[in-house]
Amino acid sequence: MSKKAIHFQVSERKVLLRLLDIVLAIFGLYLLGLLFDYEYLMIRWENSVAILILILYLSVFGTVFEIYDLQKSSQLDVTFRNIVLTVSTTVLFYFLTPVVTPFLPEKRLQIVYFYLTIVASIFLWRIAYVTLIASPRFYKRVILVGEMTYVTSFLEALSQSDPNYKIVGFINCDLSKKTPVKFEGIREFQADELMQVISEEKISEVVVASYNTETITTQIYSDLMLLLERGFTIREYSQVYEEITYRVPIQFVGKDFYKYFPFSRSNQNKLYLFFNRFFDILFSIVGLSVAVLISPVILIGNLLANRGPLFYTQERVGKHGKVFKIIKLRSMIVNAETEGAKWALANDVRITKFGNFLRRSRLDEIPQFINIIKGEMSLIGPRPERPFFVEELSRSIPFYETRHVVKPGLTGWAQVKTRYGASVDDSLTKLQYDLFYIKRRSFFLDLNIMVKTLSTVLYYRGQ
């Protein structure tokens, strides 16, 4: 059997991008001070606090402006734009924290050197990343063994998540499907070809995607056992799906419900829950204070372009299925649902021009800080749905009510990872993200969601 090619996992590539961004930016500044007449932020021990502040800003704003998004990191034009945004914001905030950072130099040109060195260092590394690590030689080459339903859903999910995870082919274990199934760029192999394909195609991993183990033939089972004995990587599809897409694949849940149910220690961790509530109240007070400051603009906008009440309330389903009334800034025409409840659509005629601004900027959600203070919601969690939609979706999607084991949130994992849901299929995708959050909720994931929410607001992606 041929030697497996080197491949970096999704998490490893993100760490590599972040780590070398920092290392090369600092190294670039070190060379600048070594080779040229440059004195601002010399890389020395006495400047360690200032350097740590710079690293912190780079990491935070790099996440906000999506320079660690693997899909976008493979596109140099998008990457360069995001690097410029990241470094510009980083340098601005760096200069605005003079207590722990060096005073501005007398030679203002040194500020330009400082800025350009960081941009050049990071972008040169990204060129190397695209040329080397994101190139086909580092793809993980995979073969799927399973039934067609799984193969199809797996391919659709991976095409949107990890560009370096290459499905070479599949072995269809569904004996009822006699007609060959074709996917672009992916071949179908016979059961007795597994070992040969692994050798000839330099396969790194076999993913078993089978709901019914009875469809795994004796030949395939024997080959898989032999591969395991040789130390070859064989993984179950739901594990790979969750790792790469950051979603829980519940659409094919059968008797193995325990695999998908969102168990999480944080759901019972009293320390986590205490600080979660503490920050809910703290950020809500800050949010409502900001709302008071911008209220004149919102009042004028509502008066001129919305014509009608500023606020409206609506029933939503909260924790443990308890119904509560959510508070929002009105973004639709008055009496928008005279024909009954229905999802908001793209370019929905019911949304006013000012309402469109409120929705895209997420300002329409500001009054929900009141719901958070009352304990009906949290800053982060699954977005609350209306009782009508919950009842409808519960009939179509398995375990939909599971998302009600935690408080609904002002923002959430689904909101920062996918678009607004306006159909049953969209709601299934959102539920997959919601259950991933509930299953893995932690301080780090909450912080990640908060930073990504800033990206959503800055890029005006609300709907």
UniProtKB/TrEMBL annotation:
<feature type="transmembrane region" description="Helical">
    <location>
        <begin position="48"/>
        <end position="68"/>
    </location>
</feature>
<keyword id="KW-0472">Membrane</keyword>
<keyword id="KW-0812">Transmembrane</keyword>
<feature type="domain" description="Bacterial sugar transferase">
    <location>
        <begin position="277"/>
        <end position="458"/>
    </location>
</feature>
<dbReference type="InterPro" id="IPR017475">
    <property type="entry name" value="EPS_sugar_tfrase"/>
</dbReference>
<dbReference type="GO" id="GO:0016780">
    <property type="term" value="F:phosphotransferase activity, for other substituted phosphate groups"/>
</dbReference>
<protein>
    <submittedName>
        <fullName>Exopolysaccharide biosynthesis polyprenyl glycosylphosphotransferase</fullName>
    </submittedName>
</protein>
<feature type="transmembrane region" description="Helical">
    <location>
        <begin position="278"/>
        <end position="304"/>
    </location>
</feature>
<keyword id="KW-1133">Transmembrane helix</keyword>
<dbReference type="Pfam" id="PF02397">
    <property type="entry name" value="Bac_transf"/>
</dbReference>
<feature type="transmembrane region" description="Helical">
    <location>
        <begin position="112"/>
        <end position="134"/>
    </location>
</feature>
<comment type="similarity">
    <text>Belongs to the bacterial sugar transferase family.</text>
</comment>
<feature type="transmembrane region" description="Helical">
    <location>
        <begin position="80"/>
        <end position="100"/>
    </location>
</feature>
<dbReference type="GO" id="GO:0016020">
    <property type="term" value="C:membrane"/>
</dbReference>
<keyword id="KW-0808">Transferase</keyword>
<feature type="transmembrane region" description="Helical">
    <location>
        <begin position="15"/>
        <end position="36"/>
    </location>
</feature>
<dbReference type="InterPro" id="IPR003362">
    <property type="entry name" value="Bact_transf"/>
</dbReference>
